[in-house]
């Protein structure tokens, strides 16, 4: 007498015509070789494999985790530093560097035809010492402010500070050529001063740092655009003042409105300076 292949205990539950004596380690059902998936111990059936995969928490890649809403990594600061470094390398490549400077550096006389340079100039630098000093400053203060404000607010602060610095150059030094993140970084310093003051912290050391950097800007022969420093400082402080006075969740719309008004004001000043004759 031969054993029948039709009994439920020795046939694959998915293929009743296939005899097998191998059991799934999770549910105990009989499975044929086609339905077996090797596990840490024994084999598993397709359903148990799917259930096991569904129950495992999904892990994010380091890059995705860094950009997730709950991450505290200062990715905006790192991104700005990376962009500045890449552009500095391009600046020092023959031919390519000429294009980068021509279409990225800020020349007030070309504001009407190259308006984007009001901001792009903050990502270019004139020398290795220039970029090292600015990127070190950004590396120190950027992460602190970015964690305090959040990425969106920090980026808005940085860009508006850069714009404020260029607008000051347009008003006070219209014949110059300007590159560098100094105006934007001074905006971060101004913002940090306002926020720290609002929170009741001591900011004597910060005032000393800002004061020394402003004084250095007036030293003859260093070719430092002190106008950008002052413009960035004022713009950054103004943006931070909006932030500290609209901290509640229900004031988000008001915050966006007033930050937008600062941007509109800077653009309006630029247009007025280009349109109105100089007395």
Automatic annotation (TrEMBL):
One matching Pfam family: Rhomboid
GO BP term (any one): proteolysis
Stretches that traverse the bilayer: 75-93, 113-133, 154-172, 178-195, 202-220, 226-244, 256-276
UniProt key word Iron-sulfur: no
B box-type domain ranges (all copies): 7-35
GO molecular function terms noted in the UniProt entry: peptidase activity
Main localization of the protein described in the UniProt heading: membrane
Membrane topology annotation: Multi-pass membrane protein
Gene3D superfamilies: Rhomboid-like (1.20.1540.10)
Keywords, alphabetical: Hydrolase, Membrane, Protease, Transmembrane, Transmembrane helix
InterPro entries for the chain: Peptidase_S54_rhomboid_dom, Rhomboid-like_sf, Rhomboid_protease_S54, Znf_B-box
Subcellular location: Membrane
Family: Belongs to the peptidase S54 family.
Entry protein name: Membrane associated rhomboid family serine protease
């Amino acid at each position: 007498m031969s054993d029948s292949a039709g009994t439920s205990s020795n046939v694959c539950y998915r293929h009743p015509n296939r005899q097998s004596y191998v059991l799934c380690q999770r549910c105990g059902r009989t499975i044929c070789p086609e339905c077996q998936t090797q596990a840490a111990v024994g084999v598993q059936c397709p359903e148990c494999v799917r259930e096991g995969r569904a129950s495992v928490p999904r892990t994010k890649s380091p890059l995705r985790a860094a950009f997730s809403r709950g991450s505290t990594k200062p990715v905006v600061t790192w991104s700005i530093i990376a962009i500045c470094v890449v552009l500095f390398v391009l600046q020092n490549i023959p031919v390519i560097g000429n294009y980068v400077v021509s279409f990225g550096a800020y020349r007030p006389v070309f504001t009407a035809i190259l308006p984007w340079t009001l901001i792009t100039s903050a990502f270019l630098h004139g020398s290795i010492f220039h970029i090292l000093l600015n990127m070190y400053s950004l590396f120190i203060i950027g992460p602190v402010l970015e964690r305090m404000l959040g990425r969106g607010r920090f980026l808005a602060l940085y860009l508006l500070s850069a714009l404020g610095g260029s607008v000051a150059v347009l008003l006070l030094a219209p014949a110059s050529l300007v590159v560098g993140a100094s105006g934007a970084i001074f905006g971060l310093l101004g913002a940090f001063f306002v926020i720290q003051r609002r929170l009741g912290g001591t900011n004597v050391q910060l005032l000393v740092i800002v004061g020394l950097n402003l004084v250095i800007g007036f030293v003859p022969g260093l070719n430092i655009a002190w106008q950008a420093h002052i413009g960035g400082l004022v713009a950054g402080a103004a943006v931070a003042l909006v932030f500290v006075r609209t901290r509640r969740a229900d004031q988000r719309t008001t915050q966006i409105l007033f930050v937008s008004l600062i941007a509109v004001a800077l653009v309006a000043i630029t247009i007025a300076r280009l349109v109105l004759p100089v007395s």
